[in-house]
Automatic annotation (TrEMBL):
Biased amino acid composition, Low complexity: 294-323, 403-462
Biased composition (Basic and acidic residues): 385-397
Organism: Ephemerocybe angulata
Protein name per its UniProtKB record: Lactonase, 7-bladed beta-propeller-domain-containing protein
Record lineage: Eukaryota, Fungi, Dikarya, Basidiomycota, Agaricomycotina
Pfam families hit by this protein: Lactonase
């Protein structure tokens, strides 16, 4: 018998302990461990597996809690610290000893230091709150991700990926050192990094994108290399309202050698699919400078453009000359030089992130030829008001709705950089994509050959990087789960074969379900469902 103990947070006053017996195909609820209110997100310590952290998503000031885990997966509370902001929605234990608290209802975050001798004990006096420079604009930080000495924070309200670093070497002291700008209205929710590509799941448009990471510290934004809508095709027949939630990239193992991207759809209604929400599974490949690439697709002969449903030969695989895109940074200061960088890029992998900046007349004329991703952007823009009204009600239920600014229009953000259609502040640099002479016309017209909304502030000219210059995202499956409103899911650990399984929970109904990863991870098969509890919103495999 192979048992896996799994912890599950949610909008209750406890963290649930489940035991999954993979041979018997059973999932048993063994305990409801008392906690503070709304332990919506939980995370384990990266080295000490007996320590668990959880946020209390409450207002006007939320909390971070620590627990010790016994051999049965039962919890005992150790410490509680305030996050310094409203409604923390995410936590992560950093390798440097801090634990993050992302205050979704406030334009700030905390990185609370822990005792080096006892990581379950907080040292809050050494951990000032970090504020994000949005002025009076909206800000809803939703996640933190440690990478290469930085912490990346997707801000759903500000349409930014903030880049933070430790300020002066003292534990718990962080500062914003740069940003990656997102086209207004997309709402970056969760992120992942693989092969120096930044994958972003945008809540408001249900779009998955891939783009290279600029060198730090700066405010440069490099072009989006690939984007796809994650919404199932069947959604067209529903009066639903889809908003993306979770993004996980699987770790390679002997049983599952290819890293795959798993993302969750979340339908807020009013109409729902009887099969529940789906988890979409994507393969990706990245082209490095000089033609070297990483490939997760076992079929290297063709790639599928999921925005058009067509297949094409990847650039550089048939010996033909690869198209180029020229990236030009033009300073608004007359004395500053213009920096130009030409990179190789596969035109079929590059599409515009959003269609919001395209003139209305042009959008109507090209409606029949528009990619799915662009049509979904416009569909979600129409449903955004309902979505934000729903979230405002939920925030009021959890006690942090009154001061939340997330309902403001993303386009009204008074952030450091302006939308592409407006002029930038003095000294800023505008990154413009110009099609190379060898680039063929895009199937949907010239609009898809232009990086709409890639305006960014920069401290200097563009610096060439050894990052991927092209990427593809290919949908392999849409797995309907029987769960309504999947906020999160988790894949088991590679040790002991736990990565054969994925667990997901419903925000509304459908309970908690365990799926078996099949076909190399490209499909999911339901193993067992437990409906004793609803509203399970985050998971940790022990």
């Amino acid at each position: 018998m192979v048992n896996f103990t799994i912890l599950a947070g949610g909008f209750t006053t406890f963290i649930a302990t489940y035991v999954f017996d993979s041979e018997a195909g059973s999932l048993s609820l063994t305990k409801q461990n008392p906690t503070g209110e709304n332990p919506s997100w939980i995370a384990s310590h990266p080295l000490n597996k007996t320590v668990l952290y959880a946020v209390n998503e409450i207002g006007p000031v939320g909390n971070l809690q620590s627990f010790l885990i016994d051999d049965n997966g039962f919890l005992s509370l150790v410490d509680t610290a305030a996050t310094g902001g409203n409604g923390p929605t995410y936590t992560e234990a950093l390798s440097t000893g801090e634990v993050s608290g992302m205050n979704f209802g406030s334009p700030n975050a905390s990185f609370i230091a822990t005792n080096p001798e006892d990581p379950a004990r907080f040292v809050q006096s050494a951990s000032p709150v970090v504020s994000f420079p949005v002025g009076d604009g909206p800000s809803n930080p939703h996640m933190s991700l440690e990478f290469n000495g930085e912490v990346f924070v997707p801000d759903l309200g500000a349409d930014k990926i903030w880049r933070l670093k430790n300020d002066g070497g003292e534990p718990g002291n962080f500062k914003v050192q740069g940003q990656i700008d997102i086209t207004p209205g997309n709402g970056p929710r969760h992120i992942a990094i693989r092969d120096n590509l930044l994958f972003i799941l945008h809540e408001k448009t249900s779009v998955l994108t891939a783009q290279p990471i600029p060198s730090a510290p700066n405010g440069t934004t490099l072009p989006v290399l690939a984007n796809v809508s994650i919404v199932p095709e069947e959604a067209k027949s529903l009066n639903g309202s889809f908003f993306a939630a979770e993004l996980v990239i699987s770790e390679p193992s002997e049983a599952f050698p290819d890293p795959l991207i798993y993302v969750s759809n979340r339908n807020l209604g009013p109409d729902f699919d009887a099969r529940g929400d789906s988890i979409a599974i994507f393969e990706y490949s990245a082209l490095l400078p000089g033609g070297n690439g990483t490939q997760t697709d076992t079929n290297t002969d063709t790639t599928t453009d999921t925005t058009t449903g067509t297949e094409s030969t990847p650039a550089g695989t048939d010996g033909a000359e690869q198209p180029t895109i020229t990236v030009t940074a033009t300073s608004t200061l007359s004395s500053a030089p213009t920096a130009t960088q030409t990179i190789k890029i596969a035109p079929t992998a590059f599409t515009t992130l959003v269609a919001a900046n395209t003139p209305a007349k042009a959008r109507r004329e090209s409606a029949d030829a528009e990619p799915v991703a662009k049509r979904m952007v416009k569909y979600h823009a129409r449903r955004r008001a309902e979505h934000e009204q729903y979230h405002n009600h939920k925030r009021q239920d959890y006690g942090y709705g009154s001061g939340d600014s997330s309902s403001a229009s993303p386009a009204s953000s008074s952030s450091a950089s302006a939308p592409a259609s407006s002029s930038t502040a003095a000294g800023a640099s505008t990154i413009t994509l110009v099609s190379g002479s060898t680039t063929p016309a895009s199937p949907s017209g010239t609009a898809t050959a232009t990086a709409t909304g890639t305006t960014a502030t920069s401290g200097g000219p563009i610096v060439a990087t050894a990052t991927p210059t092209a990427a593809t995202l290919r949908l392999t499956n849409q797995v309907f789960t029987g769960l309504r409103q999947i906020r999160s899911f988790a894949i088991g650990k590679t040790e002991g074969g736990g990565d054969e399984f994925l667990i997901a929970g419903a925000n509304l109904d459908g309970g908690v379900a365990v799926f078996k990863r099949t076909e190399g991870g490209r499909n999911l098969e339901l193993v067992v469902r437990n409906e004793e509890l609803q509203n399970r919103t985050s998971f940790v495999f022990l």
